[in-house]
């Protein structure tokens, strides 16, 4: 190898090294900028006051808040659906929060309900969670993960979790102007399941799936009762 060639080669190595360094700095800078653009309160433990602010603009049923960065904000569509999931486990709300905190897991949900019937919020309703293997669905849906008290089999959920799921559905519908939930067994209805969007999952499991018509009818009963109650209040027919 001539001296000139050797010089040329050394120069190329330096160029490559400098190029690599510049690229690394750029990627790091872009990542920092993207991280800074995250809404306030996301990706960290909140004070009680901060939690209160978040609860006020979501469901009053919330017991625990951890807002994950695994989401898109704001959501692009009006909320018009609810999608039910199961955890495929019996996680506490805190453990699920720690799991959603992992950016490389690329998973989240708006809400979760543990086996004691406590409610956690992970993605505010105004934002789109990464839950159902379908951007189209999740842009329009509030997604809810429910803890299982049976591993495998029917993937049963506790009565406390089930009853709170109904309460949360009613609350989400009322605050978002959803008049009724229709379960059609496929993705055309506005009560949807994860398995409708991916053939790689059985989520939310046979037990919850068997309850969908009942969930829709119990939620709709309560939604239908509400306007009557309001009318009665207005006419002074009920006393507090
Ligand atoms: Zn799911």
CATH-level-4 superfamily name of the largest domain: Peptidoglycan recognition protein-like
- Relative helix content: 40-55%
Number of helices: 7
CATH level-two architecture of the largest domain? 3-Layer(aba) Sandwich
What does the overall shape look like?
Answer: elongated
What is the string of SSEs from the N terminus onward? HHEEEHEEEHEHEHH
Please indicate the count of domains. 2
Going across the major beta sheet, what is the strand order? 1-5-4-7-3-8
| Structural Rg | 24 Å
Low-pLDDT regions: none
In the CATH hierarchy, the third-tier topology of the largest domain is known as Lysozyme-like
Bound molecules: zinc ion
Number of strands: 8
CATH class of the largest domain: Alpha Beta
Q: Kindly report the average pLDDT value.
A: 92
Main sheet properties: 6 strands, mixed
- In terms of quaternary structure, the protein is single chain
3D architecture notes:
The chain has 240 residues and is an alpha/beta fold. The protein folds into two domains: 1-37; 48-234, 3-Layer(aba) Sandwich (Lysozyme-like), CATH 3.40.80. It is built from seven helices and eight strands, in the order H-H-E-E-E-H-E-E-E-H-E-H-E-H-H. A six-stranded mixed sheet has the order 1-5-4-7-3-8, with helices on both faces. A two-stranded antiparallel sheet has the order 2-6. Helix 5 packs across helix 7. The structure holds zinc ion. Residues 85, 194, 201, 203 line the site of zinc ion.
